[in-house]
Amino acid sequence: MVSYDSDGVKFSIDPSNDTDEYRSSVLRAPKQPLIVVPERLLNTTMPIFDSSLVKESDSDILHQHNGEPLGERIRVTGRLLNSEGRGLGGQLIELWQANAAGRYRHAVDDHQAPLDPNFTGAGRALTGDDGTFSFLTIKPGAYPWKNAPNAWRPAHIHFSIFGRAFTERLITQMYFPGDPLLAFDPIFNSVRQERVRNRLVANFDWEATQEEYALGYRFDIVINGHLGIPLEGQ
Amino acid sequence: MTIPTPSQTIGPFFHFGLEWMGEAGTQLAKRQHSITIYGKIFDGTDQPIPDALVEMIHHSIEGVQFGRAICDPTGKYCFNTAPPAQDDGAVIQLRIFARGLLQPLVTRLYLSDTMDEVLESVDPNRRGTLVATPTASGFCFDIYLQGPKETVFFAW
Question: CA of B26, closest CA in chain A: separation in Å?
């Protein structure tokens, strides 16, 4: 949505909706160009979500049922940052994902893989003062989709971030390092610039790995901390 | 400057992760003065899309109003909200997330065709796509992603 200016080259951070390799976009991507207006005309402060809406335990996706879910336990930690690298505290983060077998708890998901009675796959958290967040979950499975013959989505976790201003709102996906399916995924590759695309791939993290319990992954999320600050010259 | 994280599609299977906020939205309906805005979102074949998420935001005299609506199986979304503050131009901003959209679409719902700086920047022939229709049950605002009635969407 927002242009990024680096070395005199302007490009869009966000993928264009006009991406035919992603079949669902063909009938849904607008054909007319977006009308570009000054950010100040669209911007408004976002509501503040506080601890009355989000419990500490909402970030533990392993313990929402009577038993423990099947799969590889992971801890996903990271920081929510603005584009100047400052941590953003008190921000709502929502997360959802498929289970270890690659199946979503959703009526429309007809993938022939088992549901897990002990796994819903949804969590949320408020970031700490320095922007940190930490979720305990299982590694989602890859799953087939009908975008093309024998197409499979790489394992991913969906993230939703509100930000402080309307123009900071972000929904994105976190991928896992070294996944061979990334090279073939039109959604991941819709982000054309490699260095921007790599923002979507978590890093394996010993620090976040919990001995004899869960592997750690680090996923920092950077939202466009504009609030009217021009991008040029940064 | 750190490279920001790019957008990815919400996909078709978000309901179990995002519908929890519904209760926060319905509190708005208990307000003494509220308005209803509703509509459907249509794809390039004029079929309503049943798997979109719509978020709205605007100012009222009570402050920032935010709402989240998940389209029902017929493709309808609906918000009950406080009337927008008059000095805010009676505008409600909408953001649409859906399978097939790699980045969400931002549009503006005008309760009347009173001109403002944003509307002035839109081709006069397309301004009508941003003005809601008053009905017996509120304000109807259908959104067309493609075609001759394609709604105006904004970037910054």
Answer: 14
* ipTM for the complex shown: 0.94
Give catalytic residue positions of A: 104, 143, 153, 156, 158
Closest chain B residue by Cα to residue A106 = B13
**Contact between residue A113 and residue A121 where contact means Cβ atoms under 8 Å apart:** no
**A83 contacts: CB under 8 Å, gap ≥ 6:** A222, A223, A224, A225, A226, A234, B1, B2, B3, B4
Domains of chain A: which residue ranges? 45-223
A108 inside 8 A of chain B by CB:
yes
What's the CATH class of domain A45-223?
mainly beta
How far is CA A205 from its chain centroid? 18
B153 contacts A30? CB cut-off 8 A: yes
Torsion of CA A228, A230, B2, B4, to 10 degrees: 60
Which residue ranges form the domains of chain B, and what is each CATH number? 31-144 (2.60.130.10)
| pTM attached to this predicted model | 0.94
Q: What is the mean pLDDT of chain B?
A: 91
Q: What is the dihedral of CA B136, B56, A16, B99, to 10 degrees?
A: -70
SS3 A181: helix
**pLDDT tens digits, residue range A92-106?**
999 999 999 999 999
Number of A/B CB contacts below 8 angstroms equals 209
Residue A10 confidence (pLDDT):
52
Put simply, the answer to whether A29 touches B101 (Cβ < 8 Å) is: yes
Q: Say which amino acid occupies B6.
A: P
